[in-house]
Specification:
This protein is an alpha+beta fold and 181 residues long. It has helices spanning 11-38, 94-108; strands at 2-5, 47-53, 56-69, 77-85, 113-117, 129-130, 136-137, 150-154, 165-168. It binds coenzyme A. Residues 21-22, 82-85, 90-96, 118-119, 121-122 line the site of coenzyme A.
Length: 181
Amino acid sequence: MDIRKSTEADRVAIEKIHTKAFGEEKGPEIAALVNGLFDDTTATPLLSLVAVEKDQLVGHILYTKAVLKGADTPVSIRLLAPLAVLPEAQAQGVGRKLIEEGLDHLREAGVDLVFVLGHPDYYPRCGFIPAGVLGFEAPYPIPDVHAAAWMVHALREGVIGRVKGKIQCADVLDQPQHWRE
Ligand SMILES: CC(C)(COP(=O)(O)OP(=O)(O)OC[C@H]1O[C@@H](n2cnc3c(N)ncnc32)[C@H](O)[C@@H]1OP(=O)(O)O)[C@@H](O)C(=O)NCCC(=O)NCCS
C-alpha cells in the first residue's frame, strides 16, 4: 500500500471513499464537506493524502489550516478532518498509516499542533490526547460527555502548556453540524 498526495484527478474516487465509509446517512454530507474544503481558500495550506492499493484508492485523509485565537505567541496548527477507509480495506492499518504519514509531512512543514474531533478510542493510538483540559477550545462547544473526542497531537515539544485558546477552522468546516461527535 502506498500513501501519496491526492491530485485533482482523484476527486471522484475520494468522494466515493467517504460516501462508502461513512454510510448512506452521513456519507454524502461528508463527501460534500471534502469537496467544499478542496475549494475553500481559508483551508489552505491543506494536506490531502490517499492510500493506494493495487491502483485503487482505498483511503483518504484531509488536514486543513486552522488558527489558534488568543495565543500570545504564534503557533502553526492544522485540523484533521475527515478520515475514511473503504469498508473492505478497514482494520489493516490503512487509517493509521494515513494519519502517521500526514503527521510526518506536517512536522516537516513546521506545524506545531494537530487537532481532531474523533473516536476517543482510535486517535490516541497515534499519539492524540484530550485537548479541552489543556486549554484548547473547539470551534463549537463539545458536550462534557464527548469531551474526550476533542484531541490534540503535539508535533513539537514545549508548545502544549505554553499556549491556549480557541480554534478557528476553515470556513466550510465552521458550521455546528460538523462539530457534533
Ligand atoms: C475509523 C477508520 C478511518 C479507521 O481506519 P482503519 O484503516 O480501519 O484503521 P486501522 O487499520 O488503522 O486501525 C484498526 C483498529 O482501529 C479500531 N477502530 C476502527 N474504528 C474505530 C472506532 N471508530 N473507534 C475505536 N476503534 C476503532 C479497529 O477496531 C482496529 O482495532 P485493532 O487494531 O485492535 O484490531 C475507518 O474505520 C473508517 O473509515 N470508518 C468510517 C469513517 C469514520 O468513522 N472516520 C473517522 C471519523 S473520526
